[in-house]
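Work Package 4 report. The design task specified in the project plan requires that, given a folded chain encoded as structure tokens, an amino acid be chosen for each position. We show below one input record used in the internal validation round.
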């Protein structure tokens, strides 16, 4: 009788862990795209409000049609705001930096789109398998087979490091390569520099600038550059980049897992920020455009 109760208790605990893992994964994607939409709104407003205010002194010319030919510079200055089609295209295109026109490809390669989505599914299945096979058994054992305490937490973290690293690689390939390229191909988006060779970087500052070019461009364009212009202080602008990035990551994780543990703030602000500033202080030829 006791063995049956133990079996059902273990089964219920296993089912509960699976439900929590699935719910947290769905919530994570939900809040990631929520932050992505917020970044797009900031980019669109920041790019067009100054133009609209400047154009109040001149006749406003609305434009909605695509114009592939080069236009006169005086005509470009008279354009005050984009049409709705440009805003709608920007909502779906895989970038968070607004431009009136992006480089476009001539045609859509649907076989490439299908291959990319197959890769997305394969990465999701791989992450689910790693989570089910290696992560969940250890978390289910915490407080049951393993005694609750700091030693058990350290043991679980150390034994899960390789699995989490593989999940991170699969997740990065899924999101920054397969998913982004699929939508870029469907929208004929030509600028597909979503990441650089972050695995070859030798310091934290270089890795921070290369592992996610999409967000890096947004941070440079709308955070670093604006703060540097307003304050005339590049170090303060770098700190602002870390603060905004840490808050976005903390927001996603806190709402996804429904508890607040400021690990991202510590990693970005204390460890990452200090190492980043120490690294760039040794680089005399550090590029001004890639300072965040």
């Amino acid at each position: 009788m006791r063995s049956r109760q133990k079996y059902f208790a273990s089964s219920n605990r296993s089912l509960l862990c699976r439900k929590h893992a699935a719910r947290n994964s769905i919530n994570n994607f939900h809040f990631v795209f929520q932050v992505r939409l917020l970044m797009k709104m900031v980019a669109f407003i920041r790019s067009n409000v100054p133009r609209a205010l400047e154009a109040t002194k001149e006749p406003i010319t609305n434009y909605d049609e695509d114009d592939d030919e080069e236009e006169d510079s005086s005509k470009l200055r008279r354009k005050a705001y984009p049409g709705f089609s440009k805003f709608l295209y920007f909502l779906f295109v895989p970038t968070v930096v607004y431009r009136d026109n992006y480089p476009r490809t001539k045609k859509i390669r649907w076989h490439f789109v299908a291959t990319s989505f197959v890769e997305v599914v394969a990465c999701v299945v791989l992450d689910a398998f790693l989570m089910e096979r290696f992560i969940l058994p250890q978390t289910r054992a915490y407080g049951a087979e393993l005694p609750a305490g700091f030693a058990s937490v350290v043991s679980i973290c150390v034994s899960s490091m390789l699995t989490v690293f593989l999940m991170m690689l699969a997740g990065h390939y899924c999101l920054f390569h397969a998913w982004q390229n699929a939508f870029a191909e469907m929208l004929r988006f030509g600028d597909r520099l979503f990441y650089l060779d972050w695995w070859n970087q030798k310091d934290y500052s270089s890795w921070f600038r290369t592992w996610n070019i999409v967000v890096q461009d947004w941070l440079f364009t709308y955070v670093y550059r604006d703060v540097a212009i307003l304050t005339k202080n590049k170090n303060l602008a770098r700190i602002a980049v870390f603060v905004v990035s840490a808050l976005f990551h903390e927001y996603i994780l806190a709402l996804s897992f429904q508890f607040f543990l400021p690990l991202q703030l510590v990693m970005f602000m204390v460890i990452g920020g200090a190492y980043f500033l120490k690294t760039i202080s040794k680089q005399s030829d550090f590029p001004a455009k890639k300072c965040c």
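The CA atoms of residues 241 and 257 lie 24 Å apart. Validation will be extended to a larger panel in the next phase.
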